[in-house]
Structure formats: C-alpha cells, structure tokens
Description:
2 helices; mainly alpha
Amino acid sequence: MTEPNHGVTVGKETFDLFRLQSGVPFDHAFSQLSTLLGCIRHLTTEAEMENDRMAGSAARILSEMAKALIDDMERGMGVEGARTL
C-alpha cells in the first residue's frame, strides 16, 4: 500500500472562490489541512461562545477549503468515489 505522504494533489477540486494547485506533496497538504482544521475549530468556538457571526462565516469558508483539499487528496490517492458535497 502506498503511503499517503508520497502522493500529490490532483488540482481538480474547485469551489466558488478558489481552486487547488496540482502537484502539492501530501506531507505539505496534510500540514495545511491540519492548520485549516485548527482555525475552523477556533472560529466555531468563538462563534458559539461570543455569538460572533463573522467567526461563523469565516469557519464556513475555511471548512469549504478543507473539504476541497480532502477531496483533492483522495483523488490523488486514487480513492474510488471521491466526491464533493
């Protein structure tokens, strides 16, 4: 079985305001994904605790970016059924 960190992104996933670049090594993509998810967690906590609509909106946008990255990495691994919601 191929280790995920030896693959690269495909660059096929796009969303309203951005797209993924092809050829990004998985180790870098996983690092960026981890950062995105940490930001999302922080922003959703802020949104809930402080009733901060802007933090909620930022979390939504970042979660869309994280989803695109996950979908693109699945495609890079050749996972069948990789899809967007």
